[in-house]
């Protein structure tokens, strides 16, 4: 039986599931019938999951959003899209594997899809640079955006990054300019744009792909101008206050929906997306389908105007 990697605050759940595995092992080896006890413990695990996940703190949500077994962009590409044809390169400097995407079909609808990919193991994480794109990654994203506009196709982006790559080489090649141009291109498109924050939405590296008509966000994902650790290191000169920073930053889906930064929360399976991949794929697929249907009747200039107004309104301050 598959066992998830347990987070620090899930220790009581881990202990119960460990007992269930021990009982199953005893039953397999000695012909014992312990079905009733297993069912009792499973029911207790489910109740404990419900109570734990109903009151997660912002810092605990950070941990869930970063869970190593959480589905990543390539998992959603495989599960939700058909006839996927990957595209590569920014046509200017290089290929950046932190940004993946191409042409695909979604429930019979042709579109362009792209996302930031973190990788699942050491080899793939290094190949995808842990989902931290360099300038060529954002220029590649701009290429995909214009491709969607040229062929009048909807664009879907999957956001899961701790932020843009902060290395010297990235800065030398114009990281800030590339991110700014990517945001500008998002706001300029005359085609439907739907973004889904599936894990971490970190800083400009996330907004570069998420200045969309409709922004969906998974229930236990996070979305912020800076990581809690980065915020703590600036304000308190120490990462020890990351929990306090997470609370102050309002990074949870629930906070961001209340603030009007995102449009809809996608519910996750009990215990997080990593515990039931089929369920989260179905949930994301249904929400994405509705979002695309809602945008389909709008013409290009209207889509562009509404998107720009949406983000400009976020910066308005009421004057008495």
Write up this protein:
By secondary structure, this protein is α/β, with parallel strands linked by helices. It has helices at 11-30, 35-53, 58-65, 73-80, 122-127, 135-150, 168-172, 175-188, 203-210, 228-235, 242-249, 253-259, 277-295, 300-314, and strands at 82-86, 99-106, 109-116, 155-161, 193-202, 214-218, 222-224, 264-266. The chain is 50% helix and 15% strand. Strands 1, 2, 3, 4, 5, 6, 7 and 8 form an 8-stranded mixed sheet that branches. Helix 1 runs antiparallel to helix 2 (35-53), helix 8 packs parallel to helix 9 (203-210) and helix 10 crosses helix 11 (242-249). It is globular, with a radius of gyration of 21 Å. The model has no long low-confidence stretch (mean pLDDT 91).
List keywords for this structure.
8-stranded mixed sheet; alpha/beta; 320 residues; 2-enoyl-CoA Hydratase, Chain A, domain 1; 2 domains
Short recap of the structure:
The chain has helices spanning 11-30, 35-53, 58-65, 73-80, 122-127, 135-150, 168-172, 175-188, 203-210, 228-235, 242-249, 253-259, 277-295, 300-314; strands at 82-86, 99-106, 109-116, 155-161, 193-202, 214-218, 222-224, 264-266. The protein is an alpha/beta fold and 320 residues long. β5 (193-202), α9 (203-210) and β6 (214-218) form a beta-alpha-beta unit.
């Amino acid at each position: 039986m598959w066992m998830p990697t347990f987070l620090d605050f899930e220790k009581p759940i881990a202990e119960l599931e460990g007992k269930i595995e021990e009982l199953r092992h005893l039953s397999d080896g000695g012909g014992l019938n312990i079905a009733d006890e297993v069912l009792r413990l499973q029911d207790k695990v489910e109740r404990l999951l419900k109570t734990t996940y109903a009151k997660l703190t912002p810092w605990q949500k950070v941990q869930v959003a970063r869970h190593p077994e959480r589905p990543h962009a390539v998992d959603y590409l495989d599960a939700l899209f058909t006839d996927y044809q990957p595209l590569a390169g920014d046509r200017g400097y290089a290929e950046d594997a932190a940004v993946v995407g191409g042409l695909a079909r979604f429930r019979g609808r042709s579109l362009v899809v792209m996302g930031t990919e973190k990788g699942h193991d050491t080899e793939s994480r290094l190949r995808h640079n842990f989902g931290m794109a360099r300038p060529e990654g954002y220029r590649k994203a701009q290429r995909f955006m214009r491709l969607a506009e040229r062929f009048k196709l909807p664009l879907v982006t999957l956001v899961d990054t701790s932020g843009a790559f902060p290395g010297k080489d990235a800065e030398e090649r114009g990281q800030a300019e590339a991110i700014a141009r990517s945001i500008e291109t998002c706001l300029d498109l005359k085609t439907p744009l739907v973004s889904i924050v599936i894990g971490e939405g970190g800083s400009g590296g996330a907004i570069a792909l998420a200045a969309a008509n409709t922004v969906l966000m998974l229930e236990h994902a996070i979305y912020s101008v800076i990581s809690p650790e980065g915020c703590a290191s600036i304000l308190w000169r120490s990462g020890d206050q990351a929990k306090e920073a997470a609370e102050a930053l309002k990074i949870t889906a629930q906070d961001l929906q209340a603030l009007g930064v995102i449009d809809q929360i996608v519910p996750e399976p009990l215990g997080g997306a990593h515990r039931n991949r089929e369920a989260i794929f179905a949930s994301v697929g249904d929400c994405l389908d509705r979002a695309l249907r809602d945008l389909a009747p709008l013409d290009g200039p209207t889509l562009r105007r509404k998107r720009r107004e949406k983000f400009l309104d976020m910066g308005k301050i009421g004057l008495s």
